[in-house]
Amino acid sequence: MNDHIIIASALALVLLGVYAFPIPKASFRVVYSGVPEDVVAALNSFRRCRPLKQFNFGGTTWRYHDSGNGEDAIVFLHGMGGSGDIWFQQIEALGERFRCIAVTYPPLPNLDLLRFGILGILDQAKIPRAHLVGSSMGGYLAQFLAAKDPTRIRKVVLGNTFPPNEVIRRRARMGMRYLPWVPEWAVMAGMRRNAQRVLFPAAGNSELVNAYLYEQTCGIMRKPDVIARCACLCQTFAPPDLNKLGIPALVIEADNDPMVDAGLRKLLKAAYPSAAVKTFNRAGHFPYLNRPAEYTESLDGFLS
Fold it and tell me: CA–CA separation, 285 vs 204, rounded Å?
C-alpha cells in the first residue's frame, strides 16, 4: 500500500512539473536582435509614445491604442497570434489622416462579447462610425461586426482571412477539445514551432515576423487567449451582403498564405463578389508586417 502511495505521489509530482514548466523569457533586445534597427526603433517608440488605454465592460478590461488626428477612424483587428500593436507600422503611417484604434482582445470565447467590447470602445471614444481593418481572425470578426452593426461601419478591409466555413471551424473545434489538457508551455512551444517552420519562410524569412510572433508566445499571449480565440472561430454566422448594405470592401490576400489556402481565399471572394481584391505575391500570412509600405498604400488608397 505504501508503495502505491509513493508511486502515486511521484506521478503527481511529475505531472505537476510538466504543467508548471515555465514559458521561456527573453529580453526585447535579444528577441529583436535580427530585426533592422530602424524597425526596432519604430516599434519601441510606438510602445513608449502610444500608451494603452483601458475600457471596462462586463467585468472585463479591454486594452487598446488610440492615436491619430483624422476625422475618419480606423479600427484595427488583429489575428489569432497577435496584439493591437502588431499594426504599429500602419498606425504610424496613417495617423496624420486617420484616428487609429487598435484593440487587443481579452480572453472572451464569443464573437458577440468581442463585438460588444469593440462597440463600447467606439462609444467611449465618441466614434459613431469607423472603417474596419481586420486580418485573419480579425477579418472574421470584421465580417461579424458588418453583419450585426452595419450602421457603425464605413468601409471594411478583409486581410488574409476567410468567411464562415467548416474547414476553419473544424480546426478550431480540435483546439477547443484538446488544448485545455495541454500544458501552457507546450501550447506556446507549438505556436513558436509553427511560426518558425511555416509562417517565417512564407513571409520571405522576415525577421520582424519571426521576432514578433516569438515575443507573443513568451508571455504576452496566454493559453486562455488561444482557447478563447478558437471558440470564437467555432461560431458561425451568415456573411453580410456588403453590397446591399452599402459597405465598400477590400480583400487583401497573399498567393502563398500557409494559413489561408487557395480554397479559403476563393470562398472569401465568392462571399463578397463586389469587393476589390489586392493580391500580394509571396508575402505569407502577415504582409502588413513584412511588406508594410505596400500594405499601407493599399489601405490608404482604399480608405481615402
Answer: 11
What is the model's pLDDT at position 301? 97
Structural domain boundaries of the chain? 26-303
Q: Residues for the chain: how many in total?
A: 304
User: If you average pLDDT over residues 104-108, what whole number do you get?
Assistant: 98
Instruction: At 219, list the grid cell.
Output: 508571455
Other beta carbons within 10 Å of 302: 18
> Bridge partners of 66?
101
> What is the model's pTM?
0.94
Is the model's pLDDT at 75 over the cut of 90?
Answer: yes
Q: How far apart are CA 119 and CA 114, in angstroms?
A: 9
Mind listing the pLDDT tens digit for each residue in 79-99?
A: 999 999 999 999 999 999 999
Beta-ladder partners of 72: 98
Architecture per CATH, 26-303? 3-Layer(aba) Sandwich (3.40)
What is each CA distance from 156 to 99, 163, 201, 216, 281, in whole angstroms?
15, 14, 29, 26, 22
**What cell was used for 258?**
500557409
**What distance in Å separates the CA atoms of residue 278 and residue 287, rounded to the nearest whole number?**
11
Cell 468581442, located at residue: 114
